[in-house]
Structures
1.
Amino acid sequence: MDSTLSSLVNENKPKHILYAYEEIESYLELVVEYCESGVRLGNHVVCIESLRLYPQVLKKLKERLTKEEMEMIHHVNNFDFYLSSGSYHPPAILEYFTRTVQPFKENNIRFQSWAHVEWNTMKAPYQHIEYFENRVDEAVAEMSFSLICAYKRALMPEQLQQTLLRTHPYVYINDKVYSNDQNQMTHL
Protein backbone atom coordinates (compact mmCIF):
# COMPACT_ATOMS: atom_id res chain seq x y z
CA MET A 1 0.00 0.00 0.00
CA ASP A 2 1.27 3.45 -0.80
CA SER A 3 -0.40 6.80 -0.46
CA THR A 4 0.30 10.49 -0.56
CA LEU A 5 0.70 12.25 2.76
CA SER A 6 -2.52 14.23 2.23
CA SER A 7 -4.64 11.14 1.63
CA LEU A 8 -3.05 9.43 4.62
CA VAL A 9 -3.79 12.38 6.91
CA ASN A 10 -7.33 12.54 5.53
CA GLU A 11 -7.91 8.97 6.73
CA ASN A 12 -7.58 10.38 10.27
CA LYS A 13 -6.38 7.02 11.60
CA PRO A 14 -3.41 6.45 13.94
CA LYS A 15 -0.14 6.08 12.08
CA HIS A 16 3.52 6.09 13.18
CA ILE A 17 5.53 7.23 10.15
CA LEU A 18 9.28 7.45 9.59
CA TYR A 19 10.46 10.30 7.34
CA ALA A 20 14.14 10.42 6.37
CA TYR A 21 14.70 13.79 4.77
CA GLU A 22 17.56 15.05 2.67
CA GLU A 23 16.89 18.64 1.69
CA ILE A 24 15.66 21.22 4.17
CA GLU A 25 13.35 22.90 1.62
CA SER A 26 11.45 19.64 1.05
CA TYR A 27 11.42 19.03 4.79
CA LEU A 28 9.89 22.44 5.51
CA GLU A 29 7.22 21.99 2.86
CA LEU A 30 6.24 18.60 4.26
CA VAL A 31 5.98 19.74 7.88
CA VAL A 32 3.82 22.67 6.77
CA GLU A 33 1.64 20.40 4.61
CA TYR A 34 1.22 17.96 7.50
CA CYS A 35 0.28 20.70 9.96
CA GLU A 36 -2.09 22.40 7.54
CA SER A 37 -3.79 19.12 6.57
CA GLY A 38 -4.27 18.23 10.22
CA VAL A 39 -5.82 21.58 11.09
CA ARG A 40 -8.14 21.37 8.07
CA LEU A 41 -9.39 18.05 9.50
CA GLY A 42 -10.02 19.68 12.87
CA ASN A 43 -6.95 18.19 14.56
CA HIS A 44 -4.67 20.10 16.86
CA VAL A 45 -1.04 19.63 15.86
CA VAL A 46 1.82 19.17 18.32
CA CYS A 47 4.85 20.29 16.31
CA ILE A 48 8.07 19.18 17.99
CA GLU A 49 10.53 21.33 16.08
CA SER A 50 13.80 23.20 16.56
CA LEU A 51 13.91 26.85 17.49
CA ARG A 52 16.04 27.31 14.38
CA LEU A 53 13.45 25.97 11.91
CA TYR A 54 10.14 26.66 13.64
CA PRO A 55 10.04 30.37 12.66
CA GLN A 56 10.14 29.30 8.99
CA VAL A 57 7.38 26.75 9.57
CA LEU A 58 5.33 29.33 11.45
CA LYS A 59 5.73 31.93 8.69
CA LYS A 60 4.50 29.50 6.03
CA LEU A 61 1.58 28.35 8.20
CA LYS A 62 0.50 31.94 8.85
CA GLU A 63 0.26 32.41 5.08
CA ARG A 64 -2.09 29.41 4.80
CA LEU A 65 -4.13 29.36 8.00
CA THR A 66 -6.43 31.82 9.73
CA LYS A 67 -5.62 33.23 13.15
CA GLU A 68 -8.15 30.82 14.71
CA GLU A 69 -6.63 27.85 12.87
CA MET A 70 -3.15 28.89 14.02
CA GLU A 71 -4.34 28.39 17.61
CA MET A 72 -4.50 24.67 16.78
CA ILE A 73 -0.72 24.54 16.22
CA HIS A 74 1.31 23.86 19.39
CA HIS A 75 5.08 24.16 19.27
CA VAL A 76 7.43 22.16 21.48
CA ASN A 77 11.16 22.86 21.30
CA ASN A 78 12.67 19.58 20.10
CA PHE A 79 15.90 20.13 22.06
CA ASP A 80 13.94 20.47 25.31
CA PHE A 81 11.74 17.54 24.34
CA TYR A 82 14.48 15.00 23.62
CA LEU A 83 16.92 16.18 26.25
CA SER A 84 14.51 17.20 29.02
CA SER A 85 16.37 15.10 31.57
CA GLY A 86 19.80 16.32 30.45
CA SER A 87 20.40 13.36 28.13
CA TYR A 88 18.47 11.06 25.81
CA HIS A 89 16.36 9.21 28.37
CA PRO A 90 13.27 7.51 26.82
CA PRO A 91 11.11 7.40 30.00
CA ALA A 92 11.60 11.16 30.51
CA ILE A 93 10.78 11.86 26.87
CA LEU A 94 7.62 9.75 27.04
CA GLU A 95 6.57 11.52 30.25
CA TYR A 96 7.13 14.92 28.59
CA PHE A 97 4.98 13.89 25.63
CA THR A 98 2.23 12.50 27.87
CA ARG A 99 2.07 15.78 29.81
CA THR A 100 1.98 17.72 26.53
CA VAL A 101 -0.97 15.82 25.05
CA GLN A 102 -2.88 15.21 28.30
CA PRO A 103 -5.22 18.22 27.81
CA PHE A 104 -6.20 16.90 24.38
CA LYS A 105 -6.90 13.42 25.73
CA GLU A 106 -8.82 14.69 28.77
CA ASN A 107 -11.04 16.87 26.58
CA ASN A 108 -11.47 14.37 23.71
CA ILE A 109 -9.72 16.71 21.28
CA ARG A 110 -8.20 15.06 18.22
CA PHE A 111 -4.53 15.75 17.65
CA GLN A 112 -1.58 14.63 15.59
CA SER A 113 2.12 15.20 16.02
CA TRP A 114 5.29 15.94 14.09
CA ALA A 115 8.63 15.17 15.77
CA HIS A 116 11.89 16.44 14.32
CA VAL A 117 14.64 14.26 15.78
CA GLU A 118 17.59 16.56 15.30
CA TRP A 119 20.06 15.64 18.01
CA ASN A 120 23.15 13.66 17.07
CA THR A 121 21.57 10.23 16.69
CA MET A 122 24.94 8.56 16.19
CA LYS A 123 25.82 9.05 19.86
CA ALA A 124 22.60 7.59 21.27
CA PRO A 125 22.72 3.85 21.95
CA TYR A 126 20.48 2.17 19.41
CA GLN A 127 18.79 -0.04 21.98
CA HIS A 128 17.49 3.14 23.69
CA ILE A 129 16.19 4.47 20.40
CA GLU A 130 14.53 1.14 19.63
CA TYR A 131 12.98 1.00 23.11
CA PHE A 132 11.72 4.57 22.76
CA GLU A 133 10.30 4.13 19.24
CA ASN A 134 8.54 0.89 20.28
CA ARG A 135 6.91 2.73 23.23
CA VAL A 136 5.94 5.57 20.89
CA ASP A 137 4.33 3.10 18.49
CA GLU A 138 2.29 1.70 21.39
CA ALA A 139 1.27 5.24 22.41
CA VAL A 140 0.17 6.07 18.86
CA ALA A 141 -2.18 3.08 18.88
CA GLU A 142 -3.37 3.61 22.48
CA MET A 143 -4.01 7.35 22.15
CA SER A 144 -5.17 7.09 18.53
CA PHE A 145 -3.14 9.82 16.85
CA SER A 146 -0.75 10.11 13.91
CA LEU A 147 2.91 10.92 14.28
CA ILE A 148 5.67 11.61 11.79
CA CYS A 149 9.21 11.13 13.11
CA ALA A 150 11.60 13.12 10.90
CA TYR A 151 15.29 12.20 10.85
CA LYS A 152 17.98 13.65 8.61
CA ARG A 153 19.06 10.83 6.31
CA ALA A 154 22.73 11.89 6.33
CA LEU A 155 22.82 11.29 10.11
CA MET A 156 21.33 7.81 9.86
CA PRO A 157 24.02 5.14 9.69
CA GLU A 158 22.88 1.70 8.54
CA GLN A 159 22.37 0.38 12.08
CA LEU A 160 20.10 3.32 12.95
CA GLN A 161 18.15 2.90 9.70
CA GLN A 162 17.52 -0.75 10.56
CA THR A 163 16.39 0.19 14.06
CA LEU A 164 14.01 2.83 12.75
CA LEU A 165 12.60 0.57 10.05
CA ARG A 166 11.86 -2.08 12.69
CA THR A 167 9.96 0.42 14.83
CA HIS A 168 7.90 2.37 12.27
CA PRO A 169 4.94 0.67 10.57
CA TYR A 170 4.94 3.36 7.84
CA VAL A 171 7.72 5.04 5.90
CA TYR A 172 7.52 8.24 3.85
CA ILE A 173 9.78 8.04 0.78
CA ASN A 174 9.70 9.98 -2.49
CA ASP A 175 6.41 11.76 -1.75
CA LYS A 176 4.55 8.58 -0.83
CA VAL A 177 3.78 6.74 2.39
CA TYR A 178 4.45 3.01 2.30
CA SER A 179 3.17 0.43 4.71
CA ASN A 180 6.08 -1.35 6.36
CA ASP A 181 4.03 -4.46 7.11
CA GLN A 182 5.81 -6.64 9.63
CA ASN A 183 8.71 -4.24 9.20
CA GLN A 184 9.84 -5.85 5.96
CA MET A 185 11.66 -2.84 4.50
CA THR A 186 15.41 -3.29 4.61
CA HIS A 187 16.69 0.16 3.61
CA LEU A 188 15.59 3.73 3.00
Note: The chain has eight helices and eight strands.
2.
Amino acid sequence: MARPPLKPLRSDDRVLLELWAREFGPALKSYFAKRVSSPGEADDLVQDVFVRLARRADLASIETVEGYLFQTARTSIAEYYRKRASSRADLQDMFDEDEHIVAGISIETVLADKEAVANLISALYELPEKTRDIFVLYHFEGHKQMQIAQDLNIGIRTVERHLAQANAFLLKRVGRER
Protein backbone atom coordinates (compact mmCIF):
# COMPACT_ATOMS: atom_id res chain seq x y z
CA MET A 1 0.00 0.00 0.00
CA ALA A 2 1.52 3.31 -1.06
CA ARG A 3 1.81 5.98 1.55
CA PRO A 4 0.41 9.43 0.90
CA PRO A 5 2.99 12.04 -0.07
CA LEU A 6 4.24 14.36 2.61
CA LYS A 7 2.44 17.67 2.71
CA PRO A 8 4.07 20.86 3.91
CA LEU A 9 3.96 20.89 7.69
CA ARG A 10 2.26 23.62 9.64
CA SER A 11 4.82 25.58 11.63
CA ASP A 12 3.50 24.35 14.99
CA ASP A 13 3.68 20.72 13.79
CA ARG A 14 7.24 21.31 12.55
CA VAL A 15 8.21 22.67 15.97
CA LEU A 16 6.66 19.65 17.71
CA LEU A 17 8.44 17.20 15.39
CA GLU A 18 11.79 18.89 16.00
CA LEU A 19 11.21 18.93 19.75
CA TRP A 20 10.17 15.27 19.83
CA ALA A 21 13.08 14.27 17.60
CA ARG A 22 15.52 15.86 20.07
CA GLU A 23 13.73 14.48 23.11
CA PHE A 24 12.83 10.97 21.97
CA GLY A 25 15.18 10.36 19.02
CA PRO A 26 18.00 8.83 21.12
CA ALA A 27 15.58 6.50 22.96
CA LEU A 28 14.03 5.42 19.64
CA LYS A 29 17.48 4.79 18.17
CA SER A 30 18.38 2.67 21.20
CA TYR A 31 15.09 0.76 20.85
CA PHE A 32 15.80 0.01 17.19
CA ALA A 33 19.52 -0.68 17.69
CA LYS A 34 18.59 -3.63 19.93
CA ARG A 35 16.40 -5.06 17.20
CA VAL A 36 18.33 -4.57 13.94
CA SER A 37 21.82 -5.47 12.79
CA SER A 38 23.28 -2.09 11.88
CA PRO A 39 23.23 1.49 13.20
CA GLY A 40 22.21 2.68 9.73
CA GLU A 41 19.07 0.56 9.84
CA ALA A 42 18.27 1.94 13.29
CA ASP A 43 18.65 5.50 11.97
CA ASP A 44 16.37 4.69 9.02
CA LEU A 45 13.72 3.30 11.35
CA VAL A 46 13.88 6.39 13.60
CA GLN A 47 13.41 8.52 10.50
CA ASP A 48 10.48 6.32 9.47
CA VAL A 49 8.76 7.00 12.81
CA PHE A 50 9.02 10.76 12.29
CA VAL A 51 7.94 10.53 8.65
CA ARG A 52 4.84 8.65 9.81
CA LEU A 53 4.21 11.43 12.33
CA ALA A 54 4.68 14.09 9.66
CA ARG A 55 1.91 12.43 7.64
CA ARG A 56 -0.46 12.70 10.60
CA ALA A 57 -2.63 15.79 10.85
CA ASP A 58 -2.59 17.93 14.00
CA LEU A 59 0.29 16.58 16.07
CA ALA A 60 -0.80 18.71 19.02
CA SER A 61 -3.79 16.40 19.52
CA ILE A 62 -1.53 13.49 20.55
CA GLU A 63 -2.08 13.08 24.27
CA THR A 64 0.65 10.59 25.22
CA VAL A 65 3.56 11.44 22.95
CA GLU A 66 6.01 8.81 24.20
CA GLY A 67 3.42 6.03 24.01
CA TYR A 68 2.36 7.13 20.54
CA LEU A 69 5.97 7.29 19.32
CA PHE A 70 6.83 3.84 20.62
CA GLN A 71 3.61 2.34 19.27
CA THR A 72 4.62 3.81 15.90
CA ALA A 73 8.12 2.38 16.43
CA ARG A 74 6.66 -1.09 17.03
CA THR A 75 4.67 -0.78 13.81
CA SER A 76 7.82 0.30 11.94
CA ILE A 77 9.89 -2.61 13.26
CA ALA A 78 7.11 -5.10 12.45
CA GLU A 79 6.93 -3.80 8.87
CA TYR A 80 10.73 -3.85 8.65
CA TYR A 81 10.83 -7.56 9.57
CA ARG A 82 7.86 -8.40 7.35
CA LYS A 83 9.54 -6.76 4.34
CA ARG A 84 12.86 -8.35 5.22
CA ALA A 85 11.27 -11.81 5.48
CA SER A 86 9.43 -11.43 2.19
CA SER A 87 12.55 -10.25 0.37
CA ARG A 88 14.49 -13.24 1.68
CA ALA A 89 11.77 -15.69 0.73
CA ASP A 90 13.04 -15.58 -2.85
CA LEU A 91 16.57 -16.49 -1.86
CA GLN A 92 17.57 -20.13 -1.84
CA ASP A 93 20.60 -21.56 -0.12
CA MET A 94 22.36 -24.59 -1.46
CA PHE A 95 21.92 -27.40 1.03
CA ASP A 96 24.75 -29.82 1.57
CA GLU A 97 23.37 -32.60 3.77
CA ASP A 98 26.84 -33.62 5.03
CA GLU A 99 27.48 -30.11 6.39
CA HIS A 100 24.12 -29.86 8.14
CA ILE A 101 23.69 -33.22 9.79
CA VAL A 102 22.92 -33.14 13.49
CA ALA A 103 22.79 -36.47 15.27
CA GLY A 104 19.23 -37.72 15.66
CA ILE A 105 17.54 -34.98 13.63
CA SER A 106 16.28 -35.82 10.20
CA ILE A 107 15.90 -33.41 7.32
CA GLU A 108 12.17 -34.05 7.46
CA THR A 109 12.06 -32.89 11.09
CA VAL A 110 13.98 -29.73 10.27
CA LEU A 111 11.69 -28.97 7.33
CA ALA A 112 8.58 -29.65 9.42
CA ASP A 113 9.89 -27.31 12.13
CA LYS A 114 10.62 -24.61 9.56
CA GLU A 115 7.12 -24.97 8.19
CA ALA A 116 5.66 -24.72 11.70
CA VAL A 117 7.59 -21.51 12.33
CA ALA A 118 6.46 -20.09 8.97
CA ASN A 119 2.85 -20.97 9.85
CA LEU A 120 3.20 -19.26 13.24
CA ILE A 121 4.63 -16.10 11.65
CA SER A 122 1.84 -16.09 9.08
CA ALA A 123 -0.75 -16.51 11.82
CA LEU A 124 0.80 -13.67 13.82
CA TYR A 125 0.21 -11.31 10.91
CA GLU A 126 -3.45 -12.33 10.84
CA LEU A 127 -3.92 -10.97 14.37
CA PRO A 128 -5.15 -7.40 14.82
CA GLU A 129 -2.15 -5.06 15.05
CA LYS A 130 -2.58 -4.14 18.71
CA THR A 131 -3.09 -7.77 19.74
CA ARG A 132 -0.01 -8.81 17.74
CA ASP A 133 2.09 -6.02 19.26
CA ILE A 134 1.09 -7.03 22.79
CA PHE A 135 1.80 -10.70 22.01
CA VAL A 136 5.25 -9.87 20.60
CA LEU A 137 6.13 -7.58 23.51
CA TYR A 138 5.15 -10.23 26.05
CA HIS A 139 6.35 -13.46 24.43
CA PHE A 140 9.31 -12.36 22.30
CA GLU A 141 10.63 -9.24 23.99
CA GLY A 142 10.00 -10.41 27.56
CA HIS A 143 8.01 -7.40 28.76
CA LYS A 144 5.84 -7.83 31.84
CA GLN A 145 2.10 -7.37 31.40
CA MET A 146 2.09 -4.36 33.73
CA GLN A 147 4.85 -2.68 31.70
CA ILE A 148 2.96 -3.28 28.47
CA ALA A 149 -0.17 -1.76 30.01
CA GLN A 150 1.78 1.31 31.10
CA ASP A 151 3.62 1.69 27.78
CA LEU A 152 0.42 1.44 25.75
CA ASN A 153 -1.64 3.42 28.24
CA ILE A 154 -4.20 0.63 28.63
CA GLY A 155 -5.43 -1.45 31.54
CA ILE A 156 -3.78 -4.66 32.67
CA ARG A 157 -7.03 -6.55 31.99
CA THR A 158 -6.94 -5.28 28.41
CA VAL A 159 -3.41 -6.66 28.03
CA GLU A 160 -4.57 -9.99 29.50
CA ARG A 161 -7.54 -10.07 27.13
CA HIS A 162 -5.34 -9.40 24.08
CA LEU A 163 -2.90 -12.12 25.15
CA ALA A 164 -5.72 -14.62 25.70
CA GLN A 165 -7.20 -13.79 22.29
CA ALA A 166 -3.81 -14.15 20.60
CA ASN A 167 -3.05 -17.44 22.34
CA ALA A 168 -6.47 -18.90 21.50
CA PHE A 169 -6.24 -17.77 17.88
CA LEU A 170 -2.70 -19.09 17.40
CA LEU A 171 -3.50 -22.44 19.00
CA LYS A 172 -6.54 -22.78 16.77
CA ARG A 173 -4.77 -21.51 13.64
CA VAL A 174 -1.46 -23.33 14.02
CA GLY A 175 -2.69 -26.16 16.21
CA ARG A 176 -0.67 -28.43 18.39
CA GLU A 177 1.57 -30.11 15.86
CA ARG A 178 3.27 -32.47 18.29
Note: The CA atoms of residues 124 and 132 lie 6 Å apart.
